[in-house]
Amino acid sequence: MAIIYFWGAAQEVTGSCHLIESASFGKILLDCGMHQGGNSIERIGDKGFPFNPASIGAVILSHAHLDHSGMLPKLVHDGFTGPIYCTSETAELLVVMLKDSVSIYMGDLARENRRLARKGKPLVEPEYSEEDVMQVLTQCEPQSYNKGFTVADKATVCLHDAGHILGSAIVELSFEERGEQKKLVFSGDLGNKSAVLMKDPSILTKADIVLMESTYGDRNHKSIDNTVSELKTILRNTEERGGNIMIPAFAVGRTQEILFYLGQLHQEGLLDNWQVILDSPMAIEVTRVYDHWFSALDRDEIEQASPHAQSILKDFIPRLFLSVTPDESMMINKMKKGALIIAGSGMCTGGRIRHHFKQRIWDARNSIIFCGYQANGTLGRLLVDGLQHLKLFGDDYVVKAQIETLGGFSAHAGQSELIEWVAHFENSPKVVLVHGEPRAQEALAQKLWTDKNIRAVIPSLGQSLVF
Question: Tell me: the pLDDT tens digits for 316-333?
């Protein structure tokens, strides 16, 4: 028999981590993600893994977002020595993501230890280091889409395009156990079919068990046309108030989609009075990776809107300002109006966006646009839910900026798309919902049953499931 242990993203959206154990292949880990919320020290924690990292034979990584990959350096630090299988695009993105993550972690750790030293308290030891990040990259074994590869004597994996971000994959694990063939499919994060840069998620039809994400299991996204129309309205209203716009954006996926649509508004002349600023060294580097893999994006969609585009950074918005250094970022503070600032992090848990909030969140002329999912416990979620006062860098601020949300830019499939995707499986596999909050999962499970007669299981953290 095979057993799945749910060690993350179980009735929560972040921290994806599922351990599969079988006598035929030992132990395989699907993702090794970091929780979101709090500072990096709190996210990484010091409790260790609920399993022995040295016992894991291989990791299969669905994509590069930190809530799926961010704990890989700690896994290696704690004894994991096996291969990390992922797509070639994901392997290239990991170089940027993990190096940035460890830099933030070390910075937070240094500040915390200075505080503890002043109080005469014991210092916090790092949970992993830059060397561990480099070791993770060494252990990566990049794979191509739709080409099976062997992970153990009786187990093979095939990665399929999930359409979520560059390199994102649906994992298809096939293995033999006691003379019987079994197949597990892990959706990873499924993409929004409206996303212009990504291809639609691949359709699979055979499985014994399906682990499916459920981030937006309780709702569908607004149409992209309505979303762009709302963005135009926000631009116009903020310009009339003489304000600026701040967009907290995920460096991988969301930033690139936003730049594309802003490029369309530029072509319409709607950005003539705006200076678009990408104030995120990581997002800039990630976008360069996207440009490297430009031919792998959905060229049909891109060519319809920008027939001659060969680069996101050069072709979408000619006047795009790339803010790399801290001095360049601080110079943005001098702009009193007309600045459209895209900065990380997407859930406002860190990064330069918090510095821009310090400069502008108290001014009612300004707007903050949230374009992606905001997990429980994050500053982004608190602001979307109506937070009126917050503390930043030791000072208190009243939230007066206009808080806006644009659902159509989401990189995740909505409820209808999730149902449509899982309904393609022909042999009534067991369906397990992961990577979602309980309310969204319950709504999706109910909808699956009433619309498709599909029963879905919702595991809790630490629960195991035999299949």
Answer: 998 899 999 999 999 999
